[in-house]
Amino acid sequence: MALTFDDGPGIATERLLDILRDKGTKATFFVLGSMAERRPDVVQRAVAEGHEIGNHTMNHKNFNQIDSGAINWEIWHSAEVLGGITGVGVKYLRPPYGIVNGVVKAAGPVILWSVDPRDWRDRDASVVRQRVLGAAHDGAIVLMHDIYGSTVDAVPGIIDGLRAGGYTMVTLSELFANKGWEPITGNVYTKIGG
Ligand code: NI
Q1: What pTM was computed for the model?
Q2: How high does pLDDT run on average in the chain?
Q3: Which of 99, 154, 170, 185 is deepest in the core (most CB within 10 A)?
Q4: What is residue 110's DSSP assignment?
């Protein structure tokens, strides 16, 4: 499975990185270029500790409300910012709100999700944990947000519960490799394998 965290880096991200380090777990962060500019050190720490960084665009605009030129800027300017901070290019794109169109598909393998605990709505660690554990499946991509303390509070129990269920948590690239899938530009992935 792949745990993914969107919209950061935020105030809870370093605490999350501590938890992931202590648990020996790797994750993928779909960061916003605008947030990464504010906390480049946190993004660099995530990379140094073996996590993967994906592109969640510059400013989290709704792609149904801006034109294709603006969409391209949102995607590519963020990719440039993240490349500058990490020293490596970003491979995966997750459009805000999961809104996919032709411009989005052209920008790289698009990563959505198969497990959504709606942690942005219910700021309750126990609810978030139970939803993730209840919906877990092989090859799952789990959508969470590291900008909420309640979500970060849920993570130790999620990791322990998933391990008890026989799952391993890896980065997206590791999950693609483990399943023998090649990430392809133009494709939209909600899970990997299976
Ligand atoms: Ni988002």
Answers
A1: 0.98
A2: 98
A3: 154
A4: E
